[in-house]
Amino acid sequence: MERRTIGAGALDVGAVGLGCMPMSWAYTGSQQRGGESLRTVHAALDAGVRLLDTADMYGPFTNELLVGRVLKERRADAFVSTKCGLLVGEQHIVANGRPGYVKRACDASLRRLQTDVIDLYQLHRADPEVPIEETWGAMAELVTAGKVRTLGLCAVGARAQRSAQRSTPAAGPRRGARGRGPGAALYEGTIRQLARIQQVFPVSAVQAELSVWSPEALETLLPWCEARGVALLAAMPLGNGFLTGTLTPGQGFEPDDLRARHPRFTAETMASNQSIVVGLRRVAERHGPEVTPAQVALAWLLTRGPHVLPVPGTKRARWAVENAAAAELGLTHRDLTELAALPLAEDSWE
């Protein structure tokens, strides 16, 4: 698999990562099986994937425990990324960026992951009650202590930002030519945070939603990363599964599945966005019967620049291997022209 780097230390990873969250959090709990998830992580590593992305809140904690079982056997094969800063309660999730908590959270993650060092430690969300510089300074001390190699920040979710924009008439319509529009404003807050913490300790990676149907991060966030040699980890690169073409409008989701409450996964909006999947499938068919819309969506992300690393999540070994193979798919000028002309996604509030 093609290799890409994270941070000034040029830590080497495969161009496509593996998001481990669906194995134990947020997606169809009845289909989460530990044995199959372990096989999925092993299959991804066998296919050339190195970046395994998890977080202490996934489960909570069970996702790190699962990844730790693989790392115990194959630590040298993996680049492990985990996150801190969010606490999961019975009915709510709250941010905690207090320095003492961050350090305790890191030690707990190290134990669950069965490793001596975390390759990339990400702040999941800034705590509004704690200056982000203080949180980041505590994370930097973890690097000095040899417990962490590099640091990253998760961007505030684009979905929340889009919702806020729609309450402001000046935001205007979102649909239109790809690469233009109000997307620049979606990450202004994140870029301000990045500018502040960069003064404390270098940022090696930023994780943000980025896909064919949510390309807003390309407008300002990716240029910020490129100018500083920072990796952009593309979260939800397959649109929570929609861009795979395997979901049917109106199929419904289990109550614990985040898509059951997601505005893009109502029957009406899924039907409205089918043209995006049709376009991906049309490009895939030109490359042969074995190529899938998901692979085209991931390959498109890889053409956005060497700093972009898609991190598709799955709990199935078959999909992990298929996703990894997207790194070998070369898109043509015709392909890219057609993909650039695809409409942006509609949401249920539009």
UniProtKB/TrEMBL annotation:
<protein>
    <submittedName>
        <fullName>Aldo/keto reductase</fullName>
    </submittedName>
</protein>
<dbReference type="InterPro" id="IPR050791">
    <property type="entry name" value="Aldo-Keto_reductase"/>
</dbReference>
<keyword id="KW-0560">Oxidoreductase</keyword>
<dbReference type="Pfam" id="PF00248">
    <property type="entry name" value="Aldo_ket_red"/>
</dbReference>
<dbReference type="InterPro" id="IPR023210">
    <property type="entry name" value="NADP_OxRdtase_dom"/>
</dbReference>
<dbReference type="InterPro" id="IPR036812">
    <property type="entry name" value="NAD(P)_OxRdtase_dom_sf"/>
</dbReference>
<feature type="domain" description="NADP-dependent oxidoreductase">
    <location>
        <begin position="16"/>
        <end position="164"/>
    </location>
</feature>
<feature type="domain" description="NADP-dependent oxidoreductase">
    <location>
        <begin position="190"/>
        <end position="341"/>
    </location>
</feature>
